[in-house]
C-alpha cells in the first residue's frame, strides 16, 4: 500500500481488485465491470437503393447494444440476400460483402450474448424458408413464455436450430392457418408474452412490431421518401435520416415493397405502458430519444433530482464514464459544485486486450478507467454512477479515486437500488447476486468503501424521466427496483436476452 493511501485520514484500507480481468467484447460475462448486460439492437430500411449500406451505418450506431454478432438481410422483391458474422459491425462487414447485399429493403441486428456461447447459428437476422417463401426476423427483447411455447411446438414435431426466442416466433408464423404474412404475424404475436421490437420480412413486406407494453424502445425515421426503423433514434443521425415517430406499443407497421404503401395497423391494444426505465438511466445513448424523451436531458434531470434529495458538501463532482456523465453534470448544475473529469475511460481496451501477468491482476481496472490525480487529490469528491449491480465495480472505482488522493468519496446513484432481476431482455445476475437484494444501503456503503451513499428515489426518477413527455406517453417499467413486473413472469422464464 502506498504512503498516500495510508494517509487518507479515514483509517480505511483500500481493497484492490484481485478478480477476473476486464475483457470487454469477448464475453460480456467475463468483464471486470459488473454493469448490466445490454440487449440487442435492430435496424430496418424500406424504400432505399442503398438499404444495406444504410443498415451498416445504423447498426454501427447501435453497437453499444450488442457486440457479439451482427447481420443484415436485404430483399430485392424476389429473393433475400444476407450476411451474418461474429464480432463488431465493422469486423463482420466490408465493401465486398456489402456490395452483394442488393435490395431496397433490409433488416439488421446487433446481438448481445447472455449465455457466453458464441454461435453463428444464433446470429440474426434469422432467415428461413417456409411454405410461403423466405422469412427473415430480427428482434430485440425477450419472450417470457418462449420456453413453454417451444416445448409445445416440439411436441408437435417442430425442430429448432437455435436457442433463440426469435425462432419460436418464426415457427408460430410458419404454422399459422393464415396464408398472408400480416395475419400470420398478428396471430403469432398474440401468443407470445414479453418485451420486444420485431422486424420481419416476408411476402414482399417489411413489418415492424412493438410489444403491447412498449417495454423495449422502437422508433421510426425518414430519409427522404425511405423509412427507417431502429431500437434507438441515434441510428437515424448516423444515416442522415431523422426521427419520425415511435412505433407505438401493440402497433404493427406494414410496408409493402410492391406498392410502396405503409399501413398502420395493430395486433393488440396498448396495455399498461411500461417503457424500460433502465433505457433512460443506463442503456440508451445520450443522443437518443426514447418515447420522445431525450436521454441526456433525462439523465441531467436525474442528477439534479439526486442533488435535491441528497446534497453533500464537496469540492468536485465527477461521473463514471460514459453513462453517468450527464447525471453528474445535472448534480453539479443544481449544487454549484464544479463538475470535473475525475475519471477517464480508456476507449482502447477492447477485444484485443491480452490478459496481463498474475502480478498485474489488480491493475486490471486501470486498463479501463483512470482517476485524474490533479483533479481529485486532496478533494472531497462526489462520484455519480447510474446503478450498483453486484457492488464490485463501485468498490474498484471508489478505490481508484482514493488511490489518486481523494480525501472523501461520496457516492450518489441516479437510480433506486437494483434489487430484482429483469425478465425482459436485460442480462442481470440472479437475485442473490444483486447487492441491493441482500444488503441495506448502509451495508452497501461499507462494501464499496464510500464515505456516504444515496440512491435516487423511485418518485424522483419517474419525475426526472417524465417531466417533458405528455400524459399519454408516460408509463415505465421499474420492476428491477420495485419488483412490480408489468406482465406475468413465469418462474421458469429464462433470464437474459432472448436474442441468443
Ligand atoms: S425490469 Fe428493469 S431493466 Fe428490465 S425492462 Fe423493467 S426497468 Fe428495464
Automatic annotation (TrEMBL):
Its cofactor is Mg(2+); [4Fe-4S] cluster. [4Fe-4S] cluster binds at residues 276, 422, 477, 480. Signal peptide: none annotated. InterPro entries: GATase_2_dom, Ntn_hydrolases_N, PRTase-like, PRTase_dom, PurF, PurF_N. SUPFAM superfamilies: N-terminal nucleophile aminohydrolases (Ntn hydrolases), PRTase-like. Binds 1 Mg(2+) ion per subunit. Residues 40-258 form the Glutamine amidotransferase type-2 domain. Pfam families: GATase_7 (PF13537), Pribosyltran (PF00156). It is an enzyme of class 2 (transferase). Its EC number is 2.4.2.14. It catalyses: 5-phospho-beta-D-ribosylamine + L-glutamate + diphosphate = 5-phospho-alpha-D-ribose 1-diphosphate + L-glutamine + H2O. Keywords: 4Fe-4S, Glutamine amidotransferase, Glycosyltransferase, Iron, Iron-sulfur, Magnesium, Metal-binding, Purine biosynthesis, Transferase. The keyword Iron-sulfur applies. Pathway: Purine metabolism; IMP biosynthesis via de novo pathway; N(1)-(5-phospho-D-ribosyl)glycinamide from 5-phospho-alpha-D-ribose 1-diphosphate: step 1/2. One of its GO terms (molecular function) is amidophosphoribosyltransferase activity. Mg(2+) binds at residues 323, 385-386. Catalyzes the formation of phosphoribosylamine from phosphoribosylpyrophosphate (PRPP) and glutamine. In the C-terminal section; belongs to the purine/pyrimidine phosphoribosyltransferase family. This is Amidophosphoribosyltransferase. It comes from Paenibacillus gyeongsangnamensis. The gene is purF.
